[in-house]
Specification:
Elements lengths: L1 E6 L3 H12 L4 E4 L23 H7 L5 H19 L4 E2 L6 E4 L5 E4 L2 E2 L9 E8 L7 H11 L3 E8 L11 H8 L2 H17 L7 E5 L7 H12 L2 E5 L6 H17 L2 E3 L4 E7 L2 E7 L4 E9 L3 H4 L2 E3 L4 E3 L19 E3 L16 H21 L6
Parallel strand pairs: 1-2, 1-14, 2-11, 7-8, 7-9, 9-10, 14-17
Antiparallel strand pairs: 3-6, 4-5, 12-13, 13-14, 15-16
Bound molecules: flavin-adenine dinucleotide.
Length: about 375
């Protein structure tokens, strides 16, 4: 018997598992597959797919005004965690930065890892591609960048990852290769040679694909910054982006280290409910898993927790009735919802955006603590 079962191992499931385990709870995390972090850019946006301010999120998701204060606490807790696990995030909810994507288009984001830097309005930048990584094309990136930053002076170059890297690679493959010191040095040496040959002097920023090391990203970033004497940014684009996979990897390792029990490749298809309380969740292999409380972090429609049918929405996890916004008509006392499990009102294009993911995990975390202190029932 667990204190808490979390359904889903996306950003919200992993964060909830870690924060609950830190409170001393016995936690199990059950998931069909991996979360959407794997397809994301690894930066946490306010509203997905559009430049926005926190006020826009409050209005669009119909959140109460307390959320403005709560997001600062939530961000602080998230930043502390990411610092501790060795992949620090930063950012200010009131002052999103403009970053470059792997296509050269710009977008705003609120919270981002150390490998991401803002794109300046003017000055001099160099875009560096790798011969082996064919979905990041410096000249194409430059074309798009200059549409929105016409005053920027932009140079481009392509370098090789060196011997043993002749095959076509994803950005993640390249990141693993760059973990090796000699590969990293080989790349930096080529950049310096090309800069000398092209007479490129003192750019303010180098733009790379999201591939600057995986486990050794800090060392790669440090070496590049020192040797190229400029700021360095990754430009996350086509998945898999190292920016995002590093986050998932570090969060999962932390959850395992803290003692969260993982049930992987396990789909919840229903629940035993008595007296308005879930007694157990039922897996597709007909196994019952029991807990005091249950957190649904199943990602809504895109994550797989909610299905759109001809007549409305269907809850694929507990099998309960949903209203026309995809929200539970009546939520059992010991069930809590995070992220897009809260229904379609907190999504845009079917997804929530990373800022809301963190906010909703933190709100659920603090609400549960408060109810436990008061000895009260736990409501979603
Ligand atoms: C392609 C793509 C790119 C994105 N890029 C960005 C970005 O750059 N910035 C940003 O801020 N946001 C981005 N998002 C949004 C981002 O994914 C979400 O904000 C957040 O990561 C969602 O996390 P989650 O934990 O709520 O859900 P998910 O990541 O969807 O996780 C859901 C989990 O629940 C599991 N699950 C579902 N049903 C069941 C079941 N019945 N039984 C067991 N397990 C189940 C799934 O296997 C999965 O592990 C992107 C989303 C997509 C789809």
């Amino acid at each position: 018997m667990y204190d808490e079962i979390i359904v889903g191992q996306g950003l919200t499931g992993l964060l909830t598992a870690i924060w609950s385990r830190e409170e001393g709870k016995q936690v199990a995390l059950v998931s069909t597959g991996l979360g959407k972090i794997f397809q994301s850019a690894g930066v946490l946006d306010i509203l997905p797919g559009e430049d926005s301010r926190f006020a826009d999120l409050l209005e669009k998701y119909k959140l109460n005004a307390c959320s403005r204060l709560t997001i600062y606490e939530a961000a602080k807790k998230y930043f502390q965690l990411t610092e501790r696990i060795g992949y620090p995030y930063q950012g200010n909810i009131e002052a999103p930065i403009t970053i470059i994507t792997g296509s050269g288009n710009l977008k705003e984001t609120a919270f981002y890892p150390d490998t991401i830097k803002p794109i300046p309005e003017q000055g001099h930048v160099v875009i560096v591609g790798f011969e082996e990584v064919v979905d990041f094309l410096p000249k194409y990136v430059k074309g798009n960048l200059q549409k929105s930053r016409p005053s920027l002076h932009v140079d481009t170059m392509t370098v090789s990852l060196g011997k043993g890297s002749s095959r076509t690679m994803s950005q993640l493959d390249a990141a693993h290769l760059l973990d090796q010191e000699k590969v990293c040095q080989h790349v930096l040496d080529q950049i310096k040679l090309k800069m000398a040959a092209k007479k490129i002097a003192k750019p303010e920023l180098f733009i790379f694909p999201a591939a600057l090391g995986f486990n050794n990203w800090r060392k790669v970033l440090e070496q590049a910054t020192i040797q190229l004497q400029a700021a360095i940014t990754e430009a996350p684009g086509m998945p898999p982006n190292a920016t995002a996979i590093r986050l998932h990897d570090k969060l999962k390792k932390e959850a395992i280290k803290l003692g969260v029990r993982f049930y992987e490749n396990t789909t919840i298809i229903g629940a035993k409910i008595e007296d308005n309380k879930v007694q157990a969740v039922i897996t597709s292999a007909n196994l019952e898993i029991k807990s005091e409380s249950y957190i649904i972090a199943a990602g809504g429609m895109l994550g797989g927790g909610i299905e759109k049918t001809a007549t409305g929405y269907k809850d694929k996890v507990l099998g309960l009735d949903l209203d026309h916004h995809g929200c539970y008509m009546s939520c059992p006392e010991n069930v809590w919802l995070v992220g897009a499990s809260n229904g379609m009102n907190v999504t845009q294009y079917g997804i929530t955006g990373g800022v809301y993911s963190i906010l909703s995990c933190y709100q659920t975390f603090t609400a549960r603590k408060q109810h436990m202190k008061l000895g009260g029932l736990q409501h979603a």
